[in-house]
Amino acid sequence: MRDTRKLKLCDIPLCFLFEGLFFSLTNFISMLSDVYYLVRSKTDGNYLIARPDAETSGYLLLFQENFDALSYLNTHAAEVANRFAVESIARTQLGNLLKRWGFNGVGIVTDPLLPKVEFLQHN
């Protein structure tokens, strides 16, 4: 059962996708961080994305802390972690980045070790 609710964040229309997950207000507020961290390839400049199906352009993975991004790389891609860099981005710049690269939305990594990701779709 999928519950879809509209949200407007920083003039970016977003859509919450709930897959049996309950968002508490505390979790939601923490997702509204002023700065996020991205993982980007040093060789070709592409961002680390999640692609739930091959037909989508993917969801840009965002981390709430620099060390979360590094933990994700070291846990899930230790052998190639040195090929990636962690960059910061202001929340206000996300909309332009999503449009420029054509991403479907963002995936906020809430637990880099499992990993656990909350997906927000950009409309």
Helix and strand topology:
Blueprint: E1 3-9, E2 12-18, H1 25-31, E3 35-41, E4 49-50, E5 59-63, H2 66-76, E6 84-90, H3 94-101, E7 105-111, E8 116-122
Record keyword descriptors for this entry:
single chain; 123 residues; alpha+beta; six-stranded mixed beta sheet; two-stranded antiparallel sheet; 3 helices; 8 strands; globular; disordered N terminus
Can you describe what's shown?
By secondary structure, this protein is an alpha+beta fold. 21% of the residues lie in helices and 40% in strands. It is built from three helices and eight strands. The protein has helices at 25-31, 66-76, 94-101, and strands at 3-9, 12-18, 35-41, 49-50, 59-63, 84-90, 105-111, 116-122. The strands form two sheets. Strands 1-2-8-7-5-4 form a six-stranded mixed sheet. A two-stranded antiparallel sheet has the order 3-6. The longest helix is centred in the middle third of the chain and has 11 residues, at 66-76. It is globular and about 35 Å long. The two termini are 21 Å apart. Mean pLDDT is 78; it is low at 1-26.
Helices, by number, come to 3
In what order do the strands lie side by side in the largest sheet?
1-2-8-7-5-4
Largest sheet: 6 strands, mixed
DSSP strand count? 8
Query: What distance separates the N and C termini?
Result: 21 Å
Query: H/E order of the elements?
Result: EEHEEEHEHEE
Helix content: 10-25%
Average pLDDT value? Answer: 78
> Cα-atom Rg, whole angstroms?
14 Å
What best-fitting shape do the alpha-carbon axes yield?
Answer: globular
* Secondary-structure-derived class: alpha+beta
Strand content: 35-45%
Q: What low-confidence regions span 5 or more consecutive residues with pLDDT below 50?
A: 1-26
